[in-house]
Structures are given as C-alpha cells and as structure tokens.
Amino acid sequence: MSLTINATKREDQGKGASRRLRRAEQIPAIIYGAGKAPSNITLGIHEITHLLEKEESYTSVLDLMVGKKKEAVIIKDLQRHPAKNIVTHVDFLRVNLKQALVTNIPLHFLGADENESIRLGAILNQFVTSVEVSCLPADLPTSIDVDITNLTLGDHISLTGLNIPKGVTLTALTHGDIEAHDQSVVAVQEAKKMAEVQDDAPVAPETEVAGDEANADNAEGDE
C-alpha cells in the first residue's frame, strides 16, 4: 500500500511568507533531484504530522501529489521547531523508479522477551540500529527484522547473518573485502562486560540516489 501526501505549489518565499504559512497551519517544503529544477511547495501541517506518525514514512517511496501531478519521492530531511517539536520544513528527494537508490533502513530486533539468556540476566548489546542499503525503489524495505530469540551468551549476529530481502544489497559488503566490513550487529553478553564494549555503529550517511547527485543549491536558504 502506497503512502500519499498532498501539496500545492508555492510562490511566496522568505521568512515572512513561511511564518504566514505556519500561522495558517501549513508548512513550506521543497522537491529536488532527478535532474530537475527544485520546486517550492506547501504542505498541510496536520497531514504531514499524521504521515510521520508511521515509521514506514521515513523509509518508503511516497506519492507526492502536487495538484494533479504525482511524483515519487522520499523524505530527505526534516526540520522541527526546537522547543515544540513541530515540523517546520520538509525536503523531498525525487526518485527515479528505474534507478537504484541508497538509503538507511532501521533494524527491528525481535525475540528479546523469549530469549532465555536475557531472561537470566544477560544483556543484549545492539551495535547497529540501521544499515545502509542499495536497491530499486520497488524493492525498498521499510525495516529489516533481526531475530535474536535463540542467541545464547556470547553469540552474535553480523551483517552477513542478516536476512536481507531479495533485490536489496548491504553497501558495507560491496567494498571487496567482506570479512573486513562484516561488523557485528548485535550480541548477547554478560552484564559486567558491557562497560568494556564500545559502540562502533557507523555514522548514518545521507540518503542519495545512485548515479544522481541530487542538488538543492537552488533551494530557499532563508526558511
């Protein structure tokens, strides 16, 4: 089931225009990428807030309706009010449905409540909470499940042990030496050893479309 968000074209620009929009329960946004010029749009605050309550919205290809025109996009960036946590601006990146894209996908760890070692006092150490993948938009998963039900004390799951959907590639394992990049994702360890373990989770890179340098240099810089 596709996720749809409605928008209208926006002509007014600048801080004053953005403040007027927000008073009218609307927020400014922009679409860019896919070799096309950036386009300024307006979103309804209630619709975008409701959409963002769904975790899959952050990792799904969305149908953005600007009037009667539909564009395939992903959410590239969100800005929120520092005190109210209200969305104040959204960046959408156009997606070519025939071209692979690179983005981060969250990991869902399942089975902790049924894991015997954890029930007896062991600790589940999550080294990685999301992974970077490359795939066609149609193959993009909203999350990747990691079953830790049967892990015993000292066991771990590495990147090569993840159940990756068909058509999806872990970019960390495409650099030649798989063993050198096959980092641990999760492990069951003794509680007293947790203080000795350093979290080596990689910094999440920005979403990008493979082969397309999405450029928002022409976007408004004053919103």
Automatic annotation (TrEMBL):
Residue ranges, annotated region (Disordered) = 1-20, 197-223
Coiled-coil ranges from the UniProt annotation: none
GO CC list: cytosolic large ribosomal subunit
Q: Where is the composition biased (Acidic residues)?
A: 209-223
Q: Name one Pfam family in it.
A: Ribosomal_L25p
Q: Which UniProt keywords apply?
A: Ribonucleoprotein, Ribosomal protein, RNA-binding, rRNA-binding
Q: Domain (Large ribosomal subunit protein bL25 L25): give its ranges.
A: 5-92
* GO terms classed as biological process: translation
Instruction: Cite the InterPro entries for this sequence.
Output: Rbsml_bL25/Gln-tRNA_synth_N, Ribosomal_bL25/Gln-tRNA_synth, Ribosomal_bL25_b-dom, Ribosomal_bL25_C, Ribosomal_bL25_long, Ribosomal_bL25_short, Ribosomal_L25_dom, Ribosomal_uL5_bac-type
Residue limits of the Large ribosomal subunit protein bL25 beta domain? 102-191
The question of whether rRNA-binding is a record keyword is answered with yes
Stated role: This is one of the proteins that binds to the 5S RNA in the ribosome where it forms part of the central protuberance.
The record's subunit annotation is: Part of the 50S ribosomal subunit; part of the 5S rRNA/L5/L18/L25 subcomplex. Contacts the 5S rRNA. Binds to the 5S rRNA independently of L5 and L18.
Report the protein name in the record: Large ribosomal subunit protein bL25
Species of the source: Candidatus Thioglobus autotrophicus
Q: What is the lineage of its organism?
A: Bacteria, Pseudomonadati, Pseudomonadota, Gammaproteobacteria, Candidatus Pseudothioglobaceae
Gene name for this UniProt entry = rplY
